Amino acid sequence: MNINHIKFFVKAYEEGSFSAAARAGRMSVQNVSKTMFDLEEEIGCLLFDRTTQGVVPTEAGRAFYVRAQLAVRAFDLCERFSIEGGGQGICHRRIISLP
To answer: Which Gene3D superfamilies match (predicted)?
Structure first.
């Protein structure tokens, strides 16, 4: 499962449209739509009902959203730890030199 797919799912869920998710991720609507299709295939159920007004989460989509939010938050915390050098002082680096 790809964290970027999950992030697009969360954005589409919160905004109610693939267009908004596409704008936020600087992607085409077609690409977001394909990403959601791939995610639904991987999970094995529809996450959204598509309408002319946007997308409406299915029951499975609402259940997945709760978990997806947690995954995105956890990923963002791990990413921030890495970017901010959060391991300084507790990480040991291995330095190898050749003669």
So the answer is: Winged helix-like DNA-binding domain superfamily/Winged helix DNA-binding domain (1.10.10.10)
